[in-house]
Amino acid sequence: SFHLSIEAQFITNNTEHKTQSSQSHAWVLSTRYTYADDIYLLGHLADVWQLKHALLPRLAEVGLSIDPAKCTLTCASTDMLQEAEAIAAPQGFKVVSLQDEAITVLGAPIGAEAAVQDLLSQYLKKLEDNFTSLLWLDNKQAAMLLLRHCGVHKVNHLLRSVPPSVIADFAHEHDMAVQHVLVSPSALDEHAKLIAALPISEGGLGLIQAESTSKAAFLGGVADAVRVARIVFPELRQHVYVPHGRQPRGG
User: Fold this and answer.
1) Cα dihedral value 169, 126, 143, 183, nearest 10
2) Are 82 and 89 spatial neighbours (Cβ–Cβ below 8 Å)?
3) Are 95 and 45 in contact (CB under 8 A)?
4) Can you tell me the distance from the alpha carbon of 228 to that of 10, in angstroms, rounded to the nearest whole number?
5) pLDDT in tens, 171-199
6) pLDDT in the model for residue 217
């Protein structure tokens, strides 16, 4: 299967409107902005390319065009890489294989394990920079609230999308970064870490550890993906196993 990521360009349409007042005539410039975020096409190579050609006139209807330099044709394996390159190269599209590289789809990295971990490392660096900025806040209560409600939960989507074996190092380093903000320049012993991870109602700080919740989060993500896949793609139902003969809601 193939995945084509298209990033539509941001364009501006300027329209002049003539207005009249009692004192003078004036030209007022109004601006209409049209923008489309990332677009994902998924399927076999011929189907994806057909969809791409069908998409272009629809984008043009609203004044949008695509930027080939930001488009990626992704192959599930290297078997079709040469054929994909022959089709995409004339268009200026980048071609990658998920067996060797990784891409980010809807905020989650997918692809070769080492490449996924590289993307996670880059994301972790951004998180650490954000956490460090909390240390400079004069209001420590505000810093704690931001850490609890924004910093800690920011990785939930990744934990639900990336297998625990792949995200293990990221989860550990993330928890270490949270603890650094909490007690810098001191350190927490194991017992204190467990207390900090407890809900506030149980005497903790609500700083849930990514490392300890990774497996449960991923299992929940897979279960939800199976439910949605059976609804959105009915043709996959015969390939998706549902234990104990139970049917997911809506399918």
Assistant:
1) 40
2) no
3) no
4) 31
5) 999 998 988 888 776 677 888 888 888 88
6) 95
Instruction: Indicate the pairing of strand 102-105 with strand 108-111.
Output: antiparallel
CA 56, CA 9: separation in Å to the nearest integer?
Answer: 12
Q: CB of 1 within 8 A of CB of 42? A: yes
Amino acid at 117: Q
The amino acid that residue 65 corresponds to is S
Is-above-0.85 flag for pTM? no
What pLDDT, in 10s, does the model give residues 71-83?
888 888 888 888 8
CA distance 225 to 207: 26
d(C-alpha 105, C-alpha 1), whole Å: 15
Contact 207, 152 (CB under 8 A): yes
Tabulate helix, strand, coil % of the chain (nearest 5): 55, 20, 25
